Amino acid sequence: MNETIGRTSVRVVLSRHPVAVDCARAAGDITGQLAEVVVFESGRAFIVASSSETVLQPRHLFGSEVALTSHEPVIVDDRSLSAALVDSSGTVVGAITTLRSVSAPLEIDAIAALGRVISFVV
């Protein structure tokens, strides 16, 4: 486990982290839709970076985010696309999510790659 994460929460570490912010913006540019990096805590998603201005806000989990607990790295549903953020122990701690379903394989692969990049921070 990352020593920094051991002392503080993932939400604190990723909040407005430059990697998370850049990945959220890239996901938004790739898909043309709102994209968020969220951390799962207490059954909710906390927005820590976004392609818009809204950050540090809690919201309900989307279906694709809930489904990430099935150990699939990427989930696409009719409302959203989420790629897992995984800590060094293999636990899903959050997601990078676009707020619409993305069907193009290149977009799905790109969001999955951004999720892996953010996972290096946690």
List keywords for this structure.
122 residues; disordered N terminus; 26% strand; alpha+beta; 5 helices; six-stranded antiparallel β-sheet; 6 strands
Taking pLDDT < 50 over at least 5 consecutive residues as the criterion, the unreliable ranges are 1-5
Please tally the helical runs, counting DSSP H or I stretches of 4 or more residues: 5
Could you state the order of secondary-structure elements as H and E? HHHEEEHEEEH
Q: Report the principal-axis shape.
A: globular
| Relative strand content | 25-35%
Structural class: alpha+beta
| Radius of gyration computed on alpha carbons | 13 Å
Kindly report how far apart the N and C termini lie: 8 Å
Strand segment count: 6
Widest sheet: strand ordering: 3-2-1-6-5-4
Helix percent band: 25-40%
* Main beta sheet: 6 strands, antiparallel
Mean pLDDT across the residues is 87
Describe the structure.
The chain has five helices and six strands. The protein has helices spanning 3-7, 10-14, 18-31, 63-67, 105-119; strands spanning 35-41, 44-50, 58-59, 74-76, 81-86, 92-98. A six-stranded antiparallel beta sheet has the order 3-2-1-6-5-4.
Sum this structure up briefly.
By secondary structure, the protein is of the alpha+beta class. The chain has helices at 3-7, 10-14, 18-31, 63-67, 105-119, and strands at residues 35-41, 44-50, 58-59, 74-76, 81-86, 92-98. It is built from 5 helices and 6 strands, in the order H-H-H-E-E-E-H-E-E-E-H.
